User: What shape does this take?
Amino acid sequence: MIRRCAQCRQPTLLPVSRRMQVYNSVIRYKCDNCSAEVDITPAASIGVLTMVGVLAFSFWGWITFGRGGEVSITSLSLFAAAVIIFSLIAFAPLAKHFRNPLVKAGARNCPPLDAGGDHIAKRPILWVERLGYFAGLLVPVVVILGVLGVAALIGYINFTYFSN
Ligand SMILES: [Zn+2]
Assistant: This one.
């Protein structure tokens, strides 16, 4: 996990610490050469965020524009503004990946989590964050399918054993 520093262009950006945020962890990198510091969000978490946004905007778009009626300028510009703001939020952490690209994966392990951060979803988040960006994209879909599957199972059991 060594990255190339965006400041001095040397492959000397090393992970120094890791802490939990609300929906993901963040790894702090520090450059051995120029002491620049940068916070990198694991790519899988950015993938999860991207897909949650895509699903949310699809749902919003379907409700607002899916019925084929008149589309007002207000609802259209509100939708467009939200898409733009979301894209900026989602792609800012992704841009750091490109500006500080990995030079050696696994050469130095991920630092342990900072103590004291008792996060309710620490384990599933850390598990997901071992994946890559594109696997992260699939995580919300898998979760939704899982929830629907459990709901269908409960409905089936309810219908089969408890009806009449
Ligand atoms: Zn540097």
In short: The chain is about 55% helix and 15% strand. Strands lie at 2-3, 13-20, 25-31, 37-40, 102-104. The first strand starts at residue 2 and ends at 3. The chain has one domain: 2-146.
